[in-house]
Amino acid sequence: MTEKNIDQALTELRTHIDQLAASNTATREKLQSLLSDLEENFHSLEGSEHHVHLVGDLKEAISEFEVEHPRLTGILNDIMVALSNLGI
After folding, report:
1. What's the whole-number mean pLDDT along residues 4-27?
2. Please, what is the Cα angle at 34 between 13 and 88, to 5 degrees?
3. If 0-12 CB within 10 Å is exposed, 13-18 middle and 19+ buried, where does residue 15 land?
4. pLDDT tens digits for 72-84?
5. Where are the domains of the chain?
6. Cβ atoms within 10 A of the Cβ of 85, count?
7. DSSP codes joined into one string, 18-85
8. pLDDT value at position 32?
9. What's the DSSP call for residue 88?
10. Which of 68, 79, 65, 64 has the alpha carbon at shortest distance from 7?
11. Are 29 and 44 in contact (CB under 8 A)?
């Protein structure tokens, strides 16, 4: 997966977050925060320590949402694998 594919996955993630039920505010807020962090920092040239933080947040979200939101979890997993393939 290339950086372009990651950008597409982030767009897909945003779409799925926007489709979450209004009553699911805690999940929406957590995913919005993660998405914002990914979008703001993915292309930055910050050190690997920051990227490790992003991957850790992705792993935590995957673990937390895998049962209730399998499609969102799949997208998050794809992003995490792509980052790993890019050496992040």
Report:
1. 86
2. 90
3. exposed
4. 899 999 888 888 8
5. 3-14+26-85
6. 12
7. HTS-TT-HHHHHHHHHHHHHHHHHTTS---HHHHHHHHHHHHHHHHHHTTT-HHHHHHHHHHHHHHHH
8. 92
9. -
10. 79
11. no
